[in-house]
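User: Hi! Is it possible to get a structure for several chains at once, not just one? Here's what I have:
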Amino acid sequence: QSVLTQPPSVSGAPGQRVTISCTGNSSNLGAGYDVHWYQQLPGTPPKPLIYYNNNRPSGVPDRFSGSKSDTSASLAITGLQADDEADYYCQSYDISLRSSVFGPGTKVTVL
Amino acid sequence: QLQLQESGPGLVKPSETLSLTCTVSGGSITTKNYYWSWIRQPPGEGLEWIGNIYYSGSTYYNPSLESRLTISLDASKNQFSLKLSSVIDADTAVYYCASLFGDFDYSWFDPWGQGTLVTVSS
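Assistant: Yes, the chains can be modeled jointly so their relative placement is included. Here is the combined structure:
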């Protein structure tokens, strides 16, 4: 059981906008710790997608954006494309667990 | 540009010790402010942080694994290693090494190695 919760799956048609939520508590997101997002394609390692809540690494399209407010964060994908089909994970730090923590992951399906 | 590569046995017997090494290229493992990390992913499941070792040698372990875990650093080979003792079936996973720059509690993992599957089975 992760201390960060994400929906198991989200789906959308090509071109649509989807959002993935990441909900924490007062020991992690609510304590002011930043959230980071990763995209994992099948058979590959996770790839950083968003860091420090809303920053994109070089090479990540601006179709991907992040936000954070108190104990929750979200990742938005606009202009959904077929190659966005992947698992998406949020990551933060939990002061009670003294651990980096990951959400359980959300599978994005392009209809 | 940093690159990381895991290596080690793909099969470990129950109750034995899992040992993996991560070789770092494109930078020194003793570069200030770098943490060197292990993360695992059981088949079909999510990601679990295992632990970090700081460039200075200080270690930070997931409390749920701490009693079985040793992470060490070999500067002469530019490598860091993971040892997990008394393994059980639930330790079967793809094991990734990764780096983290800056503050451990605020930063993110980048880059990652390709990962190596370790199966616990007799």
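Chain B is about 0% helix and 50% strand. Chain B touches chain A through 21 residues (CB under 8 Å).

User: Great, thank you!
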